């Protein structure tokens, strides 16, 4: 069963992770910075727009009040001259109302608060005693007054604009008052309305105490506005902008401007969340525009991470096969294009060289006999396979020193060693490069002779025997050897049985009196 592959922190993944995390942090922080800057810009611009709209409205209202006041002052001058002529003052009141159309009614009031004359549409008020605060204010101040809104007996929501009437000697006779309706369609409504501004905006007009006189939004005007705006929010400024809650309790941004003549303040409010919604749209756009670049950056980072990590990844994969023969050549192929990788590559190559030398040394030690330098039994089996595959006939000679125990016992072990070494050199001197010569153990040797017939193997064995017998061995004098010879075809006969056969021949040579060659 396949083991599930464990996640590994490779260099490529680490570079990718690092790059991704840092890119994301940079992106997020820039995104947040853009968000903050955009938010401030949007809020600022929307506050400024509201404030300039409020300023325009209050200027328009100021121009109206100014013109209206001048008109009333002019008429009051005429009325002062003809105050006793009831017909004339009623005509003037009517003329004013018809001409201006701004006024719902025009009244001439005497100094006791009784309506002396009225425009035709309010003729029924003639003779009535007025009791409103506006009346009291006009009579007590004897100055031009713009009243706070109030409800008339006919339930009209109005403000009253009055100017004093004096005769030619300056004596106070009463006042001329024009009533201006606040209801939808009235003059204030047509001056101050939300129709030309953003749809979510509210227009408030507040008086000096902060009481809401007028409230309108897109398409509607409140007939009896209630509520109070804390004037402390305006911080004594004539115009500016502020954050506040509207009368529904929503967080709102407001621009304001105060009228000169009435002292009323126009507030233009809109809910703050509208700008936030706009901001989210802007941020979404930013995201959409930046996304392709972000993806491109990630792809570039991914390719770079691959390119940077490739030499190290390839070197790391070769670390698993450092004992293989071809690994050095494979490592040479790796493009270690930067300092650390190239350093690692050269250290690995050096390490592999040393490792292979060491392995070779160990292998040689394991396969050779240290005393004679010949192959040992393991070394023979290691190399014989090649020989067996290539040859159709192999001569086998096995040889053993005669009475070697006596040599040891007589001359000592060192002399025995020297005899073995000298014999091995002699055998080597009689063999070809292709021959496999092996010290099988003790004083026993084996010769495998590739491509050699039995006859030639016997000839070689005989030559060896004679040479040994004729040689003087240092410290031991004359030494003889016995040899067993055989021959086999590796395709047909197993090497072990061939060796056994050679051993038998050797055994027979020993039995037959030693210092001889026996073949089988
Ligand atoms: N000096 C020395 N002696 C060895 C070495 N290896 C084996 N011997 C000795 O070789 C001797 C072999 O003795 P045996 O097997 O009885 O044979 P032999 O005395 O040669 O008698 P035959 O083979 O029957 O002629 C033993 O005494 C071993 O101790 C070696 O590396 N050096």
From TrEMBL:
Q: Which E.C. number(s) belong to this protein?
A: 2.7.7.65
Q: Does the keyword Secreted apply?
A: no
A matching Pfam family: GGDEF
Give GO MF terms, alphabetically: diguanylate cyclase activity
What reaction(s) does this enzyme catalyze? 2 GTP = 3',3'-c-di-GMP + 2 diphosphate
The pathway to which it is assigned is: Purine metabolism; 3',5'-cyclic di-GMP biosynthesis
Q: Does the keyword Transmembrane apply?
A: yes
Which InterPro entries does the entry mention? dCache_1, Diguanylate_Cyclase, GGDEF_dom, Nucleotide_cyclase, Rev_trsase/Diguanyl_cyclase, Sensor-like_sf
Q: Where in the cell is it found?
A: Cell membrane
- Where does it mainly reside? membrane
In this chain the GGDEF domain maps to 392-520
Q: Output this protein's name.
A: diguanylate cyclase
UniProt source species = Rahnella contaminans
Q: What is the lineage of its organism?
A: Bacteria, Pseudomonadati, Pseudomonadota, Gammaproteobacteria, Enterobacterales
């Amino acid at each position: 069963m396949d083991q599930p592959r464990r996640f590994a922190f490779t260099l490529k993944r680490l570079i990718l992770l690092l790059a991704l995390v840092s890119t994301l942090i940079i992106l997020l922080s820039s995104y947040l910075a853009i968000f903050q800057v955009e938010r401030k810009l949007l809020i600022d611009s929307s506050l400024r727009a509201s404030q300039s709209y409020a300023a325009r409205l209050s200027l328009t209202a100021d121009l109206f009040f100014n013109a209206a006041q001048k008109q009333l002052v002019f008429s009051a001058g005429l009325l002062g001259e003809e105050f006793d002529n009831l017909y004339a003052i009623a005509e003037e009141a009517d003329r004013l109302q018809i001409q201006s159309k701004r006024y719902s009614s025009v009244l001439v009031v005497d100094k006791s608060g009784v309506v002396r004359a009225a425009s035709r549409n309010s003729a029924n008020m003639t003779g009535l005693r007025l009791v409103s605060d506006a009346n009291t204010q006009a009579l007590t101040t004897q100055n031009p007054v713009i009243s706070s809104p109030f409800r008339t007996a006919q339930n009209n929501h109005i403000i009253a604009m009055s100017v004093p009437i004096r005769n030619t000697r300056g004596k106070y006779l009463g006042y001329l008052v024009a009533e201006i309706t606040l209801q939808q369609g009235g003059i204030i409504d047509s001056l101050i309305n939300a129709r030309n501004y953003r749809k979510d905006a509210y227009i408030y007009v507040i008086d000096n105490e902060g009481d809401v006189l007028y409230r309108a939004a897109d398409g509607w005007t409140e007939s009896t506005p209630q509520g109070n705006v804390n004037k402390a929010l305006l911080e004594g400024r004539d115009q500016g902008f502020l954050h506040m809650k509207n009368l529904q309790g929503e967080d709102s941004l407001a621009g304001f401007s105060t009228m000169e003549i009435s002292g009323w303040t126009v507030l233009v409010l809109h809910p703050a969340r509208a700008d936030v919604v706009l901001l989210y749209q802007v941020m979404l756009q930013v995201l959409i525009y930046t996304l392709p670049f972000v993806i491109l950056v990630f792809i570039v980072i991914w390719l770079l991470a691959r390119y940077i990590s490739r030499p190290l990844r390839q070197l790391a994969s070769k670390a698993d096969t450092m004992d293989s023969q071809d690994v050095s050549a494979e490592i040479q192929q790796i493009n270690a294009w930067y300092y650390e990788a190239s350093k690692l590559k050269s250290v690995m190559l050096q390490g592999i060289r040393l490792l292979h030398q060491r392995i070779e040394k160990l292998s040689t030690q394991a396969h050779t006999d240290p005393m004679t330098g010949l192959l040992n039994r393991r070394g023979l089996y290691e190399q014989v396979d090649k020989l067996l595959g290539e040859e159709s006939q192999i001569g086998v000679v096995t040889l053993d020193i005669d009475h070697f125990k006596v040599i040891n016992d007589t001359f000592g072990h060192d002399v025995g060693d020297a005899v073995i070494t000298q014999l091995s050199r002699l055998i080597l001197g009689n063999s070809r490069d292709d021959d496999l010569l092996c010290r099988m153990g003790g004083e026993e040797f084996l010769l495998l002779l590739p491509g050699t017939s039995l006859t030639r193997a016997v000839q070689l064995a005989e030559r060896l025997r004679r040479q040994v017998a004729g040689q003087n061995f240092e410290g031991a004098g004359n030494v003889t050897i016995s040899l067993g010879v055989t021959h086999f075809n590796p395709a047909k006969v197993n090497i072990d049985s061939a060796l056994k056969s050679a051993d038998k021949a050797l055994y027979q040579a020993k039995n037959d009196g030693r210092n001889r060659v026996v073949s089988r």
